[in-house]
Amino acid sequence: MAAPRSFLWSRRIFLTLLTVFVLLPVYVMVSSSLKPLEDVSEKFAWIPSGLTVRPYFDIWETVPLADYFMNSLIVAGAATVCSVTIAVFAAYAVSRYSFRGRRVFTVTVLSTQMFPGILFLLPLFLIYVNIGNATGIALFGSRAGLVLTYLTFSLPFSIWMLIGYFDSVPRDLDEAAKVDGCGPLGALFRVIVPAAVPGIVAVAVYAFMTAWGEVLFASVMTDDTTRTLAVGLQGYSTQNDVYWNQIMAASLVVSLPVVAGFLLLQRYLVTGLTAGAVK
């Protein structure tokens, strides 16, 4: 049955308005990043009178953007690797084995997502300071401390998501692997993990994006040497002026890794997010 003409036109109009709404901020960022500071500071003009790529060169000199970029890459990469590795083992144990406290563990993991992250800020700060005073291990102001902080809210979601995905993998594959002589770890790495690649990729993308753009914990748990991009962008705002064109240029530059990774892994991401929904 063909859709009514009114529905088709309504859909086109709605999708057009939605596209304009989504792309409008991107256009403002791109156009502002290509304007001199004098033009950006004045009334916004939809059509720039003059274009320049100078802000894309100045962003590396106004603030140590390269250092912030490296800090974010190390922290986000380490948080992603740790989150995926721990989540794979934890989700496999919950999905394939029955043990005392299994239901309590899954409920606890899921319930941690109901609390806002700011509730963990002060306790983690005090824990890191006390550990540093007692043992000399400097977690506060270090990349390692920031990675552990990000695991507190990325790891529970990763475990919960992979549990649902592993449940969708037939248990017959485990039995076939055991018949071939594989133990539990052999079945996990040779059978389950290859079959669960879309779900693992989705978890990795989530963990990386969460750590890459996080601001609250990074602004408190870092110092001048470990500052990440999300916090370092504030350096373009001084007491005398705000370099709006450089802020827009830097925002576009730091968004490229996430956008590129999402485009490359989009096929796995969509599959991983929906695979465990229906059994």
UniProtKB/TrEMBL annotation:
> What superkingdom heads the lineage?
Bacteria
Which keywords does this Swiss-Prot/TrEMBL entry list?
Answer: Cell membrane, Membrane, Transmembrane, Transmembrane helix, Transport
Q: What membrane topology term does the record carry?
A: Multi-pass membrane protein
Ranges for domain ABC transmembrane type-1: 69-265
Task: Please name the Gene3D superfamilies in this protein's record.
Answer: MetI-like
Query: Where does it reside?
Result: Cell membrane
SUPFAM superfamilies in the record, alphabetically?
Answer: MetI-like
Sequence intervals crossing the membrane: 12-30, 68-92, 104-127, 147-166, 187-209, 243-265
Pfam families (UniProt xref): BPD_transp_1 (PF00528)
Q: Which InterPro entries match?
A: BP-dep_ABC_trans_perm (IPR050901), MetI-like (IPR000515), MetI-like_sf (IPR035906)
Family stated for the protein in its record: Belongs to the binding-protein-dependent transport system permease family.
Q: What is this protein called?
A: Carbohydrate ABC transporter permease
The lineage is: Bacteria, Bacillati, Actinomycetota, Actinomycetes, Kitasatosporales
